[in-house]
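task queued by scheduler; priority normal; single chain, no ligands, no partner chains; default sampling; output format set to structure tokens
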Amino acid sequence: MSEAARWRAEVYVSLRPGVNDPQGLAVRDGLRRLGYDEVEEVRVGRYVQVWLRAPDPETARQRVAQMCEQLLANPVVEQYRFVVEPA
């Protein structure tokens, strides 16, 4: 049996469209107060890096998707996307 490879996942979590984003509103207002009048909307999310071992990229992707569903994102109000690359 071969040794599992090391992978790095970059996970981006954001609120689903239509979900209120008070932090985004605060950032938008702050940018406008600083003179960035062209800013119309801001959505704030999270960026998470995960390093893991898996035998192949498909297994790594499946495991990261499970992590997102169980802990990294709240699927009720958030959406996520990720990229898995060799570490």
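post-processing summary
- The first helix runs from residue 22 to 33.
- Strands lie at 5-15, 46-54, 78-86.
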